[in-house]
Amino acid sequence: MYKVSIEPHWRIAYGKNAAMDTALLLRLLSAIQTQGAILQAAKTVNLSYRHAWGMLRDAETIFGGALLKKQRGRGTRLTPLATTLLWADKRISARLSPTLESLSSELEIELSKSMMAERNSVRLIARHGFAVEELIRRLNSEGLPIELRYLSSTGAVAALARQECDLAGFRIPLGEFEAETIARYSPWLDPGKHCLIHLAVMNQGLLLAHGNPKGIHTLTDLTRHDIRFVNRQAGSGTRILLETLLTRAGIAKESINGFQTEEFTHSAIAAYIASGMANTGFGVETAARQFNLDFIPLVRERYFFAVEKEALRRAPLRNVLDILQSDDFRERVSHLVGYDATDTGRVLTLETAFQHHS
């Protein structure tokens, strides 16, 4: 099975200056930020001191400003311009990673077909999530071929009903919103045909700038004029959940500054806030901790994979289930901040999973 990796790559130019490839520059700036010295940073990214300085001077010509500043007793520091470049790269990576993973998977399958490789891959369509990423890494390490696509929860279960995938990943909030969410998926889930594999329980809530400088404590605070919000895209499960919470609280979404500002992953939301472009957003706790943000939990959610019962008894899905039920995988999921892996890998009927609402 071929393995393809596609990474974000951007160039920048100004006026008549030649475009600069930012990949190596960003690695150098990141190393300087960590180590506080150009010489050590240059060694880290396998550059000579002279080459590193030349690259920095060329970049400063293009950007029209300094990237570094010397501080007595504190070594070399990045200027706000250099920090802006690093945060831009982090936001790009967080925003594009799921799309690039899906494209990589498509290319792997096409390459395998062109070489007449035997098809025995797992077709996975799911909402993007940190535990899902862990599963993909584990499947890759085991050499199990996988066709991956990231879609909304409703898109995933609808694809399973059309037999376009083997596993469909989706989330169900616990508590008062559970029944209406289950009803949203019920047209595509057949109790006689499908069962569920429990992946994890995670926290959703407000992501806040480190230290919560704006003193945000409730959803009502989002309507303040000094608050800038960043949202998930329309149609995403997280966006739908937030809109439900706002409706229950009697808060008009139009009263929230930045409600129409959209990002496509939880990590992109967190990067947007961490870079200072917003004060708060709504997403999972893991993303908040990834970018050293504060977090206020509001809702617990269960993540499931829906699958056909008969298919689960045969390879390759049986192999996937073995991984999900392994102690090693449970431990990996439990180490994700905000995730509970107690029931990871447990197979449930729809009636058992949703017995309070059947």
Could you walk me through the main structural features you see in this protein, from its secondary elements to its overall organization?
This protein is an alpha/beta fold. It contains 14 helices and 14 strands. The chain has helices spanning 22-35, 38-44, 49-63, 80-114, 130-141, 153-161, 178-185, 237-248, 266-274, 285-290, 309-312, 317-324, 327-334, 350-353; strands spanning 11-12, 20-21, 68-71, 75-78, 122-126, 146-150, 167-173, 194-208, 229-232, 262-263, 280-284, 294-308, 339-340, 347-348. Strands 5, 6, 7, 8, 9, 10, 11, 12, 13 and 14 form a ten-stranded mixed sheet that branches. It has a two-stranded antiparallel sheet with strand order 1-2. Helix 1 (22-35) packs across helix 2, helix 2 (38-44) crosses helix 3 and helix 4 (80-114) packs antiparallel against helix 9. The radius of gyration is 23 Å and the shape is globular. The relative contact order is 0.13.
